[in-house]
Amino acid sequence: QGYPFELNGMYCCKTHGGAELPVLPGGAAPFGNFPDYSRFHPPEGRVRLLPAALLSELFPNPRTGPLLGLDVGCNSGELSIALYRHLSELQESKISPEHSMAGKDLRLLCCDIDAGLIERAKQCSPFPGSISYATLDIMDSSAREALLSCYLSRFGRSTFDICFCMSVTMWIHLNHGDSGLVKLLSCLASKCIYLLIEPQPWKCYRAAARRLRKLGRSDFDHFRSLTINGNMAEKITQILTEDCAMELVCCFGSTSWDRNILLFKSKAAQHLL
C-alpha cells in the first residue's frame, strides 16, 4: 500500500515501499506505466474526436471559480496537456488560457502510479499554473482521499467537474480483479459531474497477458478469473449506469486503435450544474 506525503504543498503517494515501479522490457509494463506511451497512441488520436467547445456546452452557466478536472493515469502528461489545450480552445502557439473557453478557467489535477513518469510530466508541462501532477495509486483509498480532498478544498469544492480515465480501466482490472474495476468506477462516479472514459477492449487484455508470457513471467494475478469480460465498453457502461448512478451522454466515436470514448453524467450531481 502507498502512503501520503506532502511535496510542494501537494499530497502525493509513494507505492510499494517507495521503490521504483518496474518497467519490463518489450513494452510489458504491468501497471500500464509505459515510458513512451504517447509514441504509439498519440494524444491527437483522442482529442480530435472531442468537440473543442465541449466544456462550454457542458457548463454553459457562469461560474465563480474554475472548472476542475481530474486525469487518472496520466502517464507522462502528453495527453493531459493535449486535453487541456483542446478543451480550453487554445491554439498550439498560445500558452495563456486568459481568453479561452469563453472566459472559463480550467484546472487539472493529473495523477499516475509511476513517480518517474510524474516527474517527467512536471518538467515538461507548459501550464504549471493550471495543471498539477501528483504520484498516486488510485486504488489506495487513504492516499487517494488525502490527495483529492486537499486539492478540492483549495477551491472550496467537494467534487470535480469532469474526470478523465483514458485507457486505464484494463490495468486496474488486471491488477485488482472484478471488484477492483467496480471500485474504481464507483469512486470516479462519486468524484465528478462528468466522466470521460476510454475503456480498453478485451483483445488488449489478451495482448497484455501475452506480452508477460513472452518474457517468461506468469499471467496477471486476476486475468484467468475475470468474469467481467467480452465487450468491455458495454460492460463498463452497464456498471456505471446500473450501479453508479450515471447516465451515458454520448459516444464520441472510436480511436484508430479501436477504443471508444464515452461521456457519462452523474445523476446525483445535477444540482451542481
TrEMBL record:
GO terms for molecular function, please? O-methyltransferase activity; RNA methyltransferase activity
Could you list this entry's UniProt keywords, alphabetically sorted.
Cytoplasm, Methyltransferase, S-adenosyl-L-methionine, Transferase
**What role is this protein assigned?**
O-methyltransferase that specifically monomethylates 5'-monophosphate of cytoplasmic histidyl tRNA (tRNA(His)), acting as a capping enzyme by protecting tRNA(His) from cleavage by DICER1. Also able, with less efficiently, to methylate the 5' monophosphate of a subset of pre-miRNAs, acting as a negative regulator of miRNA processing. The 5' monophosphate of pre-miRNAs is recognized by DICER1 and is required for pre-miRNAs processing: methylation at this position reduces the processing of pre-miRNAs by DICER1.
- Identify the GO cellular component terms for this protein: cytoplasm
Q: What is catalyzed by this enzyme?
A: a 5'-end 5'-phospho-ribonucleoside-RNA + 2 S-adenosyl-L-methionine = a 5'-end (5'-bismethylphospho)-ribonucleoside-RNA + 2 S-adenosyl-L-homocysteine; a 5'-end 5'-phospho-ribonucleoside-RNA + S-adenosyl-L-methionine = a 5'-end (5'-methylphospho)-ribonucleoside-RNA + S-adenosyl-L-homocysteine
Superkingdom, taxonomy of origin: Eukaryota
What protein am I looking at?
RNA methyltransferase
Q: Which family, according to UniProt?
A: Belongs to the methyltransferase superfamily.
Q: Which Gene3D superfamilies match?
A: Vaccinia Virus protein VP39
Compartments (UniProt record): Cytoplasm
- Top-rank EC class of the record's enzyme: transferase
The protein's matches in InterPro entries, at most eight in alphabetical order, are given as:
Bin3-like, Bin3_C, BIN3_SAM-bd_dom, SAM-dependent_MTases_sf
The stretch of residues making up the signal peptide is none
The EC number(s) given in the record are: 2.1.1.-
Record domain Bin3-type SAM: where: 44-269
The organism is Varanus komodoensis
Q: Which GO biological-process labels does this protein carry? A: methylation; negative regulation of pre-miRNA processing
